[in-house]
């Protein structure tokens, strides 16, 4: 599911795409980013108690950089869904079974992650595998059955029936272990066999270096070699030549089991050469091949027959194997100037075909990885041709000869401590049975010299703070640029570059996950998130530390009544211990804390619905066999099982709703979906459930059309899908009995938190006429009380809340600023693309040529660049607008739309050299960048406020009547920050606002009569979450009494289709809201819309075209409506997105998270037909704005773009502009003023 949602399914390595298609594409970064940000480490380094770690400047320290993400992304290539099978519901895909890895499409090169650690650091080297390691203690075998095809090796899909297998002799010790014969001497085959001792070889076993699958009495086992890694560079390489495809020649470390033995029978006469194999697909070390081939090894031209397979029938015995040659093969480092990253280049000799080197290690390789340089690498890169061992190469690189130098890290007889070992030793070690250990404190040392001194082959066994055992080799391997003192640590990788096996891809995936799982941040980060979901919204540092400690130690001890219970296995990450710590801690259990106004949380909408059904004993009616909810339940209440819209789920962990939660710097994730429309819909559905059972009647949450709503009546639940069947344990006519009933309901529905005054109010309603559905009345009123919706206590004042006031429009022309955010990051360089360009960059390419070189398969083709616009003072005289945007083309040419080129978040003036240091914002993270776009306040000078809310504040202070409005979603963008001045934002769904608590014909009881009393004003000691709920409800009720009528009185001139509802529905509601401005008493509106799904990591061109069609239709309808209503000159629309995208493609034909992009504004007052700002003239790597992969530093800031719109709305004073955009002087970008962008009317 994650592979599908986060787009790494079907991803391919850069090398795979380059070799097959000749196209440059990068690994999709989506999953690599989100698995860290959302599910493991988070963005900022944390202490064990969950508090942020800050640097010397007081800024939070980041966990990872975008360079880390680029490297981790390569670890998520090659994944594919399993084939469809029976016994699963989906008919088009398999989202049930674990994914399979295509090792040929996977990136095989080194990957450096966080803390400058390679994936594979700490693992032993494959070159150090013990002799005949398949016989040593711990060797693992997995049962295959009747097929000899090894599943974890790169074997052919079909073998010739006569292909030679490795058949164990019955006398073999290995046979005995795998057969596992019982008393009757019949083999008892186990699914997995692990050798409990090292066994001696017998017969053919003594002639091989390694085995793949073995036959044990006709049943096959596959040998699972232990995980190990390869050094990327080595000395004394030998050329290996493919058995079939001769254009894949590589070098190999002669110490590895990397190729087969191809022997010459008579000198160099190729006609009599043969392969010396003990079994099909055997791999040997170079020394073994030499031993077998007494007359010499084959070279490039030999065509040895492979017995018993016919070498012309490749499908039967083709296995991608190579054979050893005795020819030396050297390695070079291809160093990229701009980044210092390195690629591996193999240089086989001409005798074996130097022009047929494998793509992955050819001189034109496109895969590069980070290294840790020692010495002045820049001196080499800036004078490449002056270094005898180096020369210029393509990709703006320097190609250098290298050698490998190895030595020991620690010397002498002093044993280092475990911290020194883990910090300085990166290579793991096997521990042979004949090594004895010497213990010193918490370290066990092996293979010391005769005098007790440390050697390069010495090894240390230690246990880290997470309880993991490490065995590290006392060795350092450095790669040195020949003839210089410049070097880098020799990187490691799991998969063989020549012979990649699925087994090693699995090992690498496990190691990648370990990077995340064992990161120091994971325990406190997950502890905080778990506590928010299962306990309280704002866990204390003490609480988080308790949970994190249980997570790390795998133990939690709970003592009560003198008895101690231990939870957990003692292993790192034990969830039993973790959740025991969450649920049994005093912050989760102590009822006294319910009186703390900041304790507790808002309940999740679905939890309230399901909880009510369970506590009040919901039962299905015949003939229904399962609960069926409204298919649009998520849209109605904000949450539904299996219906998340993105991996960010329903709630944002750091969400701060306006009011007491934000003022207290607290968090309330569930408030993210707490809007006027969702509150009313949720309550109406609960009221309907109580009165009529589960149906869609009168706002119910049941499946639409199941019953005839004309037949429902209060208390008659037998015709619905099911109903609540709760009856109190004791019912009588005495007042004592009514108190017992209310107390019982309070316990069931609010965990006993219902206040005394609320119980009295409900009891009086219950006692008024107990024969007239008294119990239902009590349930309805309890649901309407804030205690039902929060998990701490409410302390009411004696006063009712002030009803939200309605504004009074001033006698002045109306204006509306519409702020549209295209959610997910629009690929704006395909919205506005170069077309006719003359100036060239330092590499001699004009902008269109650069665009095509960078974008490649993502670029608009010549046939797609048909909507042409003219431009001045830009690097192109003409630009092309995306073919799906005729609206934009027309308005631009009519002079009513302008672009802002390469605009984005700028905290300060940034360059490719300093952007890391001067940028505080979390670039490339969806939620953080959307927050920045909504706030326009990167340095938090106006906390918890948004750009539209502050515009309204400034206008309200000048006696304008301004209303901030959001369609569908709550957002900080519309939140103001001046107490007594700021107005509560109006939130309206696409469908408008439902009436609150409608009653069916003939009903006499109306819950609306009690709501004000139940939701009275609260004291400072009352729940901040309850206050947030009641305030939202009161606002929603007031809006529901006024706005539906105003909306229904609007007459639109355009016909709005229902598809796509995301665009046309919101466009229709936008027009309606603007046309209700007089009824709402507003002369200034600022309106926020979040539109679409623009995160196109896969098939960008297809996805972008679809979204642009919907957007174009919606904007065209809005324009036509405003012109028909005579309001066109009174509205300005700004269309933005949280960030742009990479110019370069990923291997799924998508683009990844970028930085700068293009935005546009339009309206009747816009001085259009212009491209404001600087469309970058050099977008290639090495240019002044490209920080890698075509991520471009913005040349204009959001503040510079929005200044003119803020002025157009009527905010003119410098101080007011500073309040609206606190960083407008700090972004380093020149602002565009009113006269630049607008026409005065």
Helix-strand blueprint:
Layout: H1 2-5, H2 14-21, H3 30-37, H4 66-73, E1 79-80, E2 100-101, E3 140-145, E4 166-167, H5 173-179, E5 192-194, E6 213-216, E7 219-224, E8 230-231, E9 238-242, E10 250-252, E11 261-263, E12 274-276, H6 286-292, H7 314-317, E13 322-328, E14 330-336, E15 342-347, E16 373-374, H8 377-381, E17 390-393, E18 397-407, H9 418-424, E19 437-440, E20 443-446, E21 459-463, E22 469-473, E23 476-481, E24 487-489, E25 492-493, H10 502-517, H11 522-534, H12 541-553, E26 556-560, E27 563-567, H13 575-584, H14 586-589, H15 605-615, E28 618-620, H16 633-637, H17 660-663, H18 676-692, E29 722-724, H19 735-750, H20 756-768, H21 774-784, E30 815-822, E31 832-837, H22 847-855, E32 867-870, E33 876-881, H23 886-894, E34 897-904, H24 915-918, H25 926-935, H26 947-957, E35 962-967, E36 986-988, H27 1008-1014, H28 1024-1048, H29 1061-1075, H30 1077-1080, E37 1084-1091, H31 1100-1124, E38 1131-1137, E39 1157-1163, E40 1171-1172, E41 1196-1197, H32 1198-1209, H33 1214-1220, H34 1234-1237
Parallel strand pairs: 4-6, 30-37, 30-38, 34-40, 34-41, 35-36, 35-37
Antiparallel strand pairs: 1-2, 3-5, 3-7, 6-7, 8-25, 9-10, 9-13, 11-12, 14-15, 14-18, 16-24, 17-18, 18-23, 19-20, 20-21, 21-22, 23-24, 26-27, 28-29, 31-33, 32-33, 34-39, 38-39
Helix pairs in contact: 3-4, 11-12, 11-13, 12-13, 18-21, 18-28, 19-20, 19-21, 20-21, 29-31
């Amino acid at each position: 599911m994650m592979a599908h949602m986060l787009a790494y399914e079907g991803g391919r390595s850069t090398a795979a795409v380059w070799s097959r298609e000749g196209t440059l594409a990068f690994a999709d970064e989506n999953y690599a980013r989100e698995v860290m940000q959302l599910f493991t480490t988070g963005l900022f380094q944390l202490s064990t108690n969950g508090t942020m770690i800050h640097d010397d400047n007081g800024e939070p320290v980041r966990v990872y950089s975008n360079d880390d993400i680029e490297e981790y992304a390569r670890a998520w290539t090659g994944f594919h869904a399993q084939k469809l099978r029976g016994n699963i519901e989906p008919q088009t895909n398999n989202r049930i079974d674990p994914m399979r890895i295509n090792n040929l499409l996977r990136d095989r090169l080194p990957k450096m992650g966080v803390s400058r650690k390679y994936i594979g650091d700490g693992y032993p080297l494959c070159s150090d595998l013990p002799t005949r390691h398949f016989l040593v203690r711990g060797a693992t075998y997995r049962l295959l059955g009747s097929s000899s095809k090894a599943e974890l090796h790169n074997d052919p899909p079909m073998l010739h029936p006569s292909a030679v297998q490795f058949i164990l002799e019955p006398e073999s010790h290995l046979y005995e272990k795998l057969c596992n014969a019982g008393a009757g001497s019949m083999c008892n085959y186990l699914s997995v066999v692990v050798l409990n001792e090292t066994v001696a070889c017998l017969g053919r076993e003594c002639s091989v270096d390694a085995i793949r699958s073995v036959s044990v009495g006709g049943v096959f086992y596959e040998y699972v070699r232990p995980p190990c890694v390869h050094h990327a560079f080595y000395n004394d390489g030998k050329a290996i030549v493919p058995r079939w495809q001769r254009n894949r020649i590589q070098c190999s470390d002669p110490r590895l089991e990397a190729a087969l033995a191809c022997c010459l029978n008579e000198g160099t006469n190729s006609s009599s050469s043969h392969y010396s194999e003990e079994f099909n697909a055997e791999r040997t070390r170079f020394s073994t091949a030499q031993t077998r081939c007494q007359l010499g090894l084959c070279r490039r031209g030999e065509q040895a027959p492979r017995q018993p397979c016919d070498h012309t029938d490749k499908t039967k015995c083709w296995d991608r194997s190579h054979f050893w040659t005795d020819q030396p093969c050297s390695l070079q480092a291809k160093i990229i100037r701009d980044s210092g990253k390195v690629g591996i280049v193999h240089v086989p000799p001409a005798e074996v075909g130097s022009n047929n080197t494998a793509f992955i290690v050819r001189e034109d390789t496109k895969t590069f990885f980070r290294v840790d340089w020692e010495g002045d690498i820049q001196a080499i890169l800036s004078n490449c041709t002056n270094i005898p061992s180096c020369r210029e190469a393509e990709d703006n690189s320097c190609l250098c000869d290298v050698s490998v130098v190895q030595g020991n890290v620690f010397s002498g007889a002093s044993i280092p401590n475990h911290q020194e070992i883990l910090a300085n030793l990166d290579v793991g070690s096997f521990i042979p049975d004949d090594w004895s250990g010497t213990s010193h404190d918490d370290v066990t040392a092996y293979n010391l010299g005769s005098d007790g001194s440390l050697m390069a082959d010495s090894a240390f066994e230690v246990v880290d703070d997470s309880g993991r055992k490490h065995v590290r080799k006392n060795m350092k391997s450095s790669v040195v640029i020949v003839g210089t003192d410049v070097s880098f640590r020799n990187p490691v990788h799991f998969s063989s570059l020549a012979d990649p096996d699925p087994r090693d891809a699995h090992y690498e995936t496990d190691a990648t996950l370990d990077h995340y799982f064992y990161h120091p941040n994971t325990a406190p980060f997950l502890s905080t998130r778990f506590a928010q979901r299962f306990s309280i919204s704002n866990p204390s540092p003490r609480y988080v530390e308790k949970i994190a400690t249980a997570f790390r130690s795998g133990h939690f001890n709970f003592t009560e009544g003198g008895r101690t219970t231990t939870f957990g296995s003692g292993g790192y990450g034990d969830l039993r211990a973790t959740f025991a710590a969450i649920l049994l801690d005093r912050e989760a259990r102590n009822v006294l804390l319910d009186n703390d106004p900041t304790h507790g949380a808002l309940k999740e909408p679905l939890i309230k619905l399901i909880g009510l059904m369970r506590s009040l004993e919901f039962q299905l009616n015949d003939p229904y066999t399962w609960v069926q909810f409204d298919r649009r339940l998520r849209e109605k209440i904000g949450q539904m099982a299996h219906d998340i819209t993105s991996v960010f789920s329903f709630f944002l962990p750091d969400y701060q709703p306006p009011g007491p939660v934000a003022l207290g710097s607290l968090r309330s994730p569930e408030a993210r979906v707490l809007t006027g429309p969702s509150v009313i819909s949720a309550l109406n559905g609960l009221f309907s459930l109580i009165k009529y059972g589960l149906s869609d009647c009168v706002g119910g949450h049941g499946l639409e059309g199941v019953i005839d709503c004309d037949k429902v009546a209060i208390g008659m639940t037998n015709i619905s899908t099911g109903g609540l069947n709760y009856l109190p344990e004791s019912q009588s006519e005495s007042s004592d009995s009514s108190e017992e009933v209310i107390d019982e309901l309070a316990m069931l529905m609010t965990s006993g938190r219902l206040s005394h005054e609320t119980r009295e109010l409900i009891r009086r309603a219950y006692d008024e006429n107990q024969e007239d559905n008294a119990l239902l009345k009590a349930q309805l009123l309890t649901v309407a009380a804030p205690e039902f919706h929060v998990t701490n206590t409410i302390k009411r004042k004696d006063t009712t809340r002030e009803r939200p006031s309605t504004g009074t429009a001033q006698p002045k022309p109306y204006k509306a600023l519409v702020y549209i955010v295209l959610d997910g990051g629009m690929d704006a360089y395909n919205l506005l693309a170069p077309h006719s360009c003359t100036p060239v960059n330092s590499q001699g390419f004009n902008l269109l040529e650069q665009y095509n070189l960078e974008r490649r398969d993502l670029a608009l083709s010549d046939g797609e660049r048909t909507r042409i616009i003219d431009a001045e003072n830009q690097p192109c005289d003409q630009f092309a607008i995306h073919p799906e945007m005729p609206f934009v083309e027309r308005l631009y040419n009519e002079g009513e739309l302008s672009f802002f080129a390469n605009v984005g978040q700028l905290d300060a003036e940034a360059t490719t050299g300093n952007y890391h240091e001067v940028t505080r914002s979390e670039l490339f993270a969806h939620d953080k960048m959307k927050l920045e776009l909504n706030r326009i306040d990167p340095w938090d000078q106006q906390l918890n406020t948004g750009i539209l809310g502050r515009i309204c504040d400034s206008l309200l202070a000048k006696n304008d009547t301004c209303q901030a409005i959001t369609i569908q979603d709550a957002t900080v963008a519309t939140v103001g920050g001046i107490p007594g001045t700021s107005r509560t934002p109006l939130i309206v769904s696409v469908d408008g606002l439902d009436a609150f608590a409608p009653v069916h014909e003939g009903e006499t009881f109306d819950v609306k009569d009690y709501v004000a009393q139940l939701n009275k004003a609260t004291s400072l000691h009352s729940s901040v979450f309850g206050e947030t709920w009641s305030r939202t409800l009161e606002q929603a009720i007031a809006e529901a009494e006024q706005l539906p009528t105003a909306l229904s009185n609007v007459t639109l001139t355009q016909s709005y289709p229902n598809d796509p509802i995301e665009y046309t529905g919101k466009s229709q509601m936008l027009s309606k809201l603007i046309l209700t401005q007089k009824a709402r008493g507003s002369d200034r509106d600022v309106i926020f819309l979040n539109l679409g799904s623009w995160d196109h990591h896969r098939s960008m061109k297809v996805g972008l075209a679809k979204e642009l069609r919907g957007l174009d239709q919606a904007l065209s309808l809005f324009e036509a409506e405003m012109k028909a209503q005579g309001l066109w000159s009174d509205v300005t629309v700004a269309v933005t997105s949280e960030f742009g995208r990479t110019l370069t493609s990923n291997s799924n034909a998508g683009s990844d998270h970028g930085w700068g992009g293009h935005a546009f504004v339009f309206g009747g007052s816009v001085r259009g037909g212009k491209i404001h700002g600087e469309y970058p003239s050099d977008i290639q790597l090495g240019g002044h704005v490209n920080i890698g992969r075509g991520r471009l530093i913005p040349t204009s800031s959001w503040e510079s773009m929005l200044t003119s719109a803020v002025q157009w709305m009527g905010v003119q004073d410098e101080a007011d502009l500073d309040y609206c955009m606190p960083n407008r002087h700090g972004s380093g970008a020149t602002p565009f003023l009113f006269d630049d962008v607008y026409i005065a009317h």
